[in-house]
Specification:
This protein has 9 helices and 14 strands. The chain is of the alpha/beta class. It has 2 domains: 88 residues, 2-Layer Sandwich (Alpha-Beta Plaits), CATH 3.30.70; 149 residues, Vaccinia Virus protein VP39 (Rossmann fold). The chain has a 7-stranded mixed beta sheet with strand order 10-9-8-11-12-14-13, sandwiched between helices. Strands 2-3-1-4 form a 4-stranded antiparallel beta sheet, covered by helices on one side. Helix 6 links the parallel strand 9 and strand 10. It starts with a strand and ends with a strand.
């Protein structure tokens, strides 16, 4: 007979969340996660800073068959009544299958589809990027990635060299190559992102046309089109570098920007770029420019 997994949830604030997490781990939690308890937006942190939500739900996952009662009792003795605790039972099931079922083929623009390897795209004329969700950011499900994919689908990429600055999973570079780009350069500061990009390029049989770089090399020839999906602060700081790596007259798309942050990024890029337009999705924005 299958036994249930046990979750113990604690409603905390940003000051005591780490302490609660430590107590859950000491109580035998297999994993501890943090989650926003009240849909409170968190803007990007400064370098080296870690921010939590004002109201944070900390959840400890315990092994099947765990008796939660003594754990909850001990936690209440240590935390008092100011931190509500709740016990949740999770029915055992095929978690891998449940995870896989979350991801379906997605269309961006008129031609481009992102498809997990265990599905088939329903459109036989589609330009398809096979991409399995992994550890690096960028599967198409986030609005910022979707905005960039839609923009790439709208561009004539035939024969062009594309720069994907902050490539993450490589989804944008691979999509550009599948849409007709001659070559692409993916730049990231995370070795895991470079590895994920390389794997996804191989899966889509475009690895011979994708160059990957751990950090920017200013000796690189400027691109015919640049896309960068990072965060507003780093994007503003990277303007001089991105300008050097983008040909005069070439289009640029920036995403990873909250709507309220758009003026700051536009101001930073007007040094070397002409602002063209913007698109918004679920509170996030994509800005497009032309290199002066």
């Amino acid at each position: 007979m299958k036994q249930d997994w046990i979750e113990i949830k604690a409603r905390c604030n940003s000051q005591n969340a780490d302490h609660v997490s430590m107590l859950l781990e000491q109580s035998g939690a297999l994993a501890v996660t943090y989650q926003d308890a009240e849909d409170s937006p968190i803007l990007e942190p400064r370098p080296g800073e870690r921010r939590l939500w004002p109201n944070t739900e900390v959840t400890g996952l315990f092994a099947q068959g765990t008796d939660a009662a003594p754990i909850v009792s001990a936690l209440r003795q240590q935390l008092g009544d100011s931190i509500p605790l709740a016990e949740v039972r999770l029915e055992d099931k095929d978690w891998i299958r449940a995870w896989m079922d979350q991801f379906k083929p997605m269309r961006f623009g008129k031609r481009l589809w992102i498809c997990p390897s265990w599905h088939q795209v329903p459109d036989p004329k589609a330009v398809t990027v096979m991409l399995d969700p992994g550890l690096a950011f960028g599967t198409g499900t986030h609005p910022t990635t979707a905005l960039c994919l839609e923009w790439l689908d709208s561009q004539d990429l035939t024969g062009k060299k594309v720069l994907d600055y902050g490539c993450g999973s490589g989804i944008l570079a691979v999509a550009a190559l599948k849409l007709g780009a001659h070559s692409a350069l993916g730049i990231d500061i995370d070795e895991q992102a470079i590895s994920a990009s390389r794997d996804n390029a191989r899966r889509n049989q475009v690895d011979e046309r994708l160059q990957l770089s751990l950090g920017a090399d200013e000796r690189t020839c400027p691109s015919d089109l640049t896309v960068a999906n990072i965060l507003a602060g780093p994007l503003a700081e990277l303007e001089p570098q991105i300008a050097k790596l983008t040909k005069k007259g070439a289009p640029l798309a920036l995403s990873g920007i909250l709507c309220a942050q758009a003026p700051e990024v536009i101001a930073a890029y007007q040094r070397d770029f002409e602002f063209v337009d913007q698109a918004e999705k679920e509170g996030w924005i994509r800005l497009t420019f032309k290199r002066c």
